Amino acid sequence: MTSFQEYSAAEKQARISIEKCTSADELDKLRAKYLGRQGVLKDLFSQMGKSPESERPARGRELNRIKKELTGLLEKRKTEFGSVSKKEEIYDPTLPPPFVDKGKTHPVIKILKEVENIFTSMGFGIAYGPDIETEYYNFTALNIPENHPARDMHDTFYVKNYKNTLLRTHTSPVQVRVMEKKKPPYKFIAPGRCYRRDTVDASHLPVFHQVEGLMVDSNVTFSDLKGVLHLFAKRMFGTKVKIRFRPSFFPFTEPSAEMDISCGICSGKGCPACSQKGWLEILGAGMVDPEVFRYCGVDTAKWQGFAFGMGIERIAMLKYDIHDLRLFIQNDLRFLKQF
Amino acid sequence: MKVPVQWLKEYVSGLPSAERLAEILTLRGLEVEDVTDGLTGKVIELELTPNRGDCASIVGVARETAAALGKKIKNDIPFKTDKSDGEKPKISIKNQDPVKCPLYFLKLITDLKTAPSPKWLEERLKDCGIRPQNSIVDITNYVLMETGQPLHAFDADKIEGTEIIIREAEKGEKITTLDGIERKLHGGEIVIADRCGPIALAGVMGGEHTAVSPSTGTVLLESACFLPACISRTESIHGIVTESSYRFSRGTDPGGVKMSLLRAAGLMAEVCCGNISALALEDVRKPFTRPVIELKPYNISSVLGCAIPEKDIKKSLEELGFGVNAKGRLLHVEVPSYRSDVSREIDIIEEIARCFGYDRIQETMPGVSAETDLVPPEDILERAGEILRGIGFYQVLTPTLCDGSLMTKIYSGKKIKPVELANPLTGNFDILRLDLLSGLLKVALYNINRNNYQVKLYERGSVFKKGSKGTVENEQLAFVEKNGDFFAVKAAVLGVLEEMKQDYSLAYGIDSIWFEKEKSAAVFIKGKEAGTFGVFKGEILEKLDIDDEGFSGCYLIPELFDRSAIEGIKFRSWSEFPSVYRDISVVADVKLTHSEIYDNISSGGGEILRDIRLFDVYTGKGIEKGLKSMTYRLEFNSPEGTLSSAQVSKKMDLIVKKLKKDLSVELR
User: Are B521 and B487 within one domain?
Assistant: First the structure.
């Protein structure tokens, strides 16, 4: 059985060796000798089991104290040697790390998700519809009659071999589909791909993305439309953004408006990016036209609401200062890596 | 619509600067595209919305400008009144379609001397974007620009017979229009005809035969009103939009038909020394009456969310030319003849809001019922996107429209039913895509050609085909990697399937148009093929003009995935006891697959065998030809307690015996 004296003897010897030690290598050996798995202290701990039970707590405390002090001493000496060894071995932290592949979301989808997040956080739901639509949902039920100049605003792709079938020119048909099936109130957005019969150039794509929104209740007003869309603009473009609403025309809303945001580049002073106007158009909106409600079987005496629609590529262009839509479909990795 | 400010000044005095005016008009809903310098001074270019055909004229813009500035329009378009010289009419109007042509006026002007127009007239036309021709045509265009009323001048001497007939065209009838194009009529268009046939495509373009020429001495001047939808239809049938048809299809002012005719006649007398004959023919089938709309002032605030004082309402409407009469608590609003776009109470409310200024309407947040059951379910495919991006795949978006002939090439021999476009722009975009892989390979090629590195691409999106009941749209997820071998794509696929918690099985060596048979596999979920992956065949790359190799790829059909596996994710605790690891090296026939050995070990190991990991495959020195060495690390664990060495060894013996018995696999 070991006595307490043996503990202090071991401690003393260890202290002297550590103090005298002259290299990091030697220090490591001492650490192993005293504190290692088969070291002196471990040995003393294991022998403790043989001592009377009443002594064990005191012995344990003493051994732990020694262990702690020796550890501290070893650490202290190690730092002294550490600075020496650094000089010996040249470590170049400026070397490049191993290459790690990192993929990214397409910027248009990134913006689309951001728009979705903003509106869902305001309590909007999400509804979807097909790309291949009928004339009824795309035009007629949205108060765009045949032989009306409003249809000219939408150059349309028609589908061969199917009567009155087309590729939707906006995601508004989703509104009609939802309103037909469900009773108000409504509060949802409809994101998706749309098509216009445009030749590809810097400012036109035949396939692009839109998000439409609809909110209908007993007392939703034009001032609510302004409030909701202003909040959207602030979250999308930053709190400093200014907005303005201009009267406009859409067959499916009345009154209709277009919303402009202050040009982020010139802060509204006028520059080439905003054609010297200081404002950039970002979306169309308005109060749902009673004709649309009539087509969808919604009672206009009880319900009213607003709708809005925006082009996602357009928002991405404004946000990232992109001037050529073709970049979005080229999928050049040098482009995709940037956002 | 281009508006020379100098011309506008004739109708509204005290205009602000063109730039300021542009802003005012924009905020009233007449969006100004640009302000440029013209021959007569500043020119304001308006981008008119389809409802505001009334502003496709100087007078129309002047009315809106005056209202915006709180001024009165100088409403005195000068025109000469008829003077009778007693001549008897030789021509009569025969209107066979009064519904499509409710108003039709003609005036004969004789002794004309055509010549180039005076400078002031030419300059104004040029500033409006119209090319001057000769004084007669120029005057009709001038009045069109001024009042918005389209006019047409026939060379009276070239008209056959004594009747001007307004009728529907017959199918197959022909007319050569002013632009020199012979047009075959569809039937149903309105035409103006004489004894020998159509002389004008009414409201759109005159005929070549009766066109005014420098030698014209007598002109029959037409001013009419046509049904907008009818003109719009003619435009789309014949694919032409003219200054006239643009205005007619948006609705012209029935109140201005006669006045404009007299205005033009007066100008012809003045400019071309013409003689206005008394021959004025009128066919008025539907005299215009101002519609009256009932307006409940309460509805204004309930729509706008903002109260507008009644005196402001009255003032705004009156400035725009509406009549307002109070009838008890209601207002009766009389719509002026030039505002055919206003027919309902909501239209009036829009006019009021527009005049009040959208910017003055306060912003509020709607207090609506919280209920919406359109809460989207978790986008489970986004889990796949997360994994793919994490291992270096970039998301791309390729157009859903693609080249039909390329698809025929790719799917040669297969029966495919693509959804085709009836009116494609080019052959490159004539069908809706059948797959994502061909688009992804094209994007890969694009990037390789530009020396972009890390060509690892994925896309999620719809593919389309014809089904038995109409068209079918399905979502797919696909990815393509350059320099990725079979195992690279397999790793990605398994990563996706595991992240999506799918209970799947794989079938190797499948027949696919895309992938090499021996380096391919299909993914089965609940017995259905939910996708395939592998290394692309050389012939597919060739068809896509890819002069390169080493592409792997995959497509998955998320619709066939088991959603509940993700939605039902629950935490599972692990064993608190330590695992025991044993390595086992076996020598097997090279033809024996890993999966056969794996399954055998797995069934021999029973419940306590938790994991089997292959970490070495070796052939060569020390291993007999035709054999291979495979080394596995097995993990044993029990949730009930620490496993003893004896327990594990017993299991190991069992595994070794079973391997030998079932697969003739020996311990190395």
Answer: yes
